[in-house]
């Protein structure tokens, strides 16, 4: 399966890297971003690896934990769409509005 990143998810990833580099080192930021990217890439081979977000009521929308971050994605036919990436301490409802992806 092909893995496609929505613009919002790319912006999330950039923001995560900037935040980490301000509070730690650029090396640590690069390490975290690389891990998130690799974990998201693996969804192309294993799209059901993440768990379904039950409260949404759509079994095609899932999330995968990557360190302290959650990767929200949608399995759509032969494609995995990365919708958002956010720190697990944040609330899902404050991070993503699924209406933006309909």
Automatic annotation (TrEMBL):
Family indicated by similarity: Belongs to the RelE toxin family.
Keywords in alphabetical order: Toxin-antitoxin system
Methyltransferase keyword on record: no
Record-linked PANTHER family: TOXIN PARE1-RELATED, TYPE II TOXIN-ANTITOXIN SYSTEM RELE_PARE FAMILY TOXIN
Organism (species): termite gut metagenome
Identification of the protein by name: Uncharacterized protein
Claim: Acyltransferase is one of the keywords in the record: no
């Amino acid at each position: 399966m092909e893995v496609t990143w929505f613009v919002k998810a790319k912006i999330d990833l950039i923001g995560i890297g900037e935040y980490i580099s301000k509070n730690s080192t650029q090396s640590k930021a690069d390490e975290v971003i690389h891990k998130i990217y690799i974990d998201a890439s693996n969804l192309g081979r294993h799209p059901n690896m993440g768990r379904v977000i039950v409260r949404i009521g759509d079994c095609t929308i899932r999330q995968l934990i990557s360190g302290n971050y959650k990767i929200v994605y949608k399995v759509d036919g032969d494609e995995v769409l990365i919708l958002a990436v956010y720190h697990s301490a944040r609330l899902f409802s404050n991070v993503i509005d699924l209406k933006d992806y309909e």
